[in-house]
Design brief:
3 helices, about 15% helix, 2 domains, 5-stranded mixed β-sheet, alpha+beta, Immunoglobulin-like, binds copper (II) ion, 4-stranded mixed β-sheet, 17 strands
């Protein structure tokens, strides 16, 4: 803030208000510089960008399930005949899906802590979210902060993709039949971002934004695998949209597979996921436009 401007401000708004405004203006200036640095040097926020050495280990496991899953009614798609016509039988919500072997599908497992001080390259390939038969595919996906999300549609009806994040920028974009893919990014790590479609209220997906590439989603056999982890001690978290989150510690040795099974019980209360924005994994606030 220039001297003249400062005097004008003090006369009109008082000393404290002007001091706060001045600090904010200074902060904004610094943010601008940091943006340029971050663009030139992607790893600047958390030190050098981590590179694999070929000595990495892995973690595999499965998500066991106990108890009674909710009994769902078939989704009523009559409101849009295009959606209904694409299914020959009843379609059920894919919130709680118990596999034939008693395991739970669509659980997101990720490294919650143990990677402090490392920063990671943003993959150049995109992660795809399709809309097929008025259902999101996949139902749960992981993506790195700043990596491109590519939303495509296979349906002959208009969808409306509307993620509702808490710490990222909210967006809401329509996609008519045959439209180009919608390309979007999320700037900050955040678990469990619900995605809805304003046209079809039953459509729901969950996006988990990570500051690193170490995550997986349990599949139709309830298993998951996180590969390429540097040797170390980690805390893993398993997150399910209905049951919540549970954590456990795991040690990964160089060139070795480790095992970590999780369990969810329908009768037990679990807390919500609580991804902390670790300094090394938190990305610059202003590196990508307005969010
Ligand atoms: Cu839709």
């Amino acid at each position: 803030m220039q001297k003249q401007e400062w005097n004008r401000c003090r006369a009109r708004r008082g000393l404290l208000t002007c001091a706060a405004a001045s600090l904010l203006a200074f902060g904004a200036g610094c943010g601008g510089e940091r943006t340029e640095q971050a663009q030139e040097q992607p790893g600047a926020e958390g030190g050098a960008v981590w590179k694999p050495t070929g000595q990495e280990g892995s973690v595999t496991g499965k998500i066991n399930f106990q108890g009674q899953p909710p009994k769902y009614r078939a989704i009523l798609m009559d409101a849009d005949s295009v959606c209904a016509a694409q299914h020959s039988g009843p379609v059920y919500p894919d919130s709680v899906v118990v596999n034939n072997n008693g395991t739970l599908r669509n659980v997101f497992v990720y490294v919650k802590s143990g990677l402090e001080g490392k920063s990671f390259e943003v993959p150049s390939d995109s992660v795809e979210l399709d809309q097929e038969g008025c259902i999101y595919k996949p139902h749960v996906l992981g993506i790195q902060a700043r990596q491109q999300l590519k939303v495509v549609t296979s349906d002959n009806t208009t969808h409306n993709i509307h993620p509702i994040p808490k710490v990222n920028r909210e967006w809401n974009v329509s996609q008519p039949p045959g439209a180009d893919p919608i390309m979007q990014t999320f700037s900050r790590p955040e678990t469990s971002i619900p995605v809805k479609c304003n046209q079809h209220p039953w459509m729901r997906a969950y996006i988990h934004v990570m500051g690193h590439p170490f995550y997986a989603v349990s599949g139709d056999d309830g298993s998951f695998k996180i590969e390429g982890l540097p040797a170390g001690e980690y805390e893993l978290e398993a997150v399910h949209e209905e049951y919540g989150a549970t954590t456990q510690k795991v040690t990964v040795a160089a060139n070795q597979p480790s095992a970590a099974d999780f369990g969810f019980n329908a009768k037990q209360a679990y807390g919500p996921s609580s991804l902390k924005m670790m300094p090394a994994l938190a990305l610059s606030c202003c590196a990508h436009g307005s969010d």
